[in-house]
Design goal:
77 residues, mainly alpha, 3 helices, 66% helix
Amino acid sequence: MAPLPGAELVQKPLQLYRYLLRCCQQLPTKGIQQHYKHAIRQSFRVHSDEDNPERIQQIIKRAIEDADWIMNKVGLG
């Protein structure tokens, strides 16, 4: 189960970035939202030079799985 509708449509890094920020809006407190927004931004900076399409798809898949886990952990999934 995905944290928000549309996870299956995420194919590009920018789509993933927007999707993850929308997931953050569903988190219960501003502090938690800011924590995960910061983590998302940092991760995108770290991977910004990635140019291997297969690796990009692995990163996207893992990020969606992690978002799903977080949403389930806080009781939103």
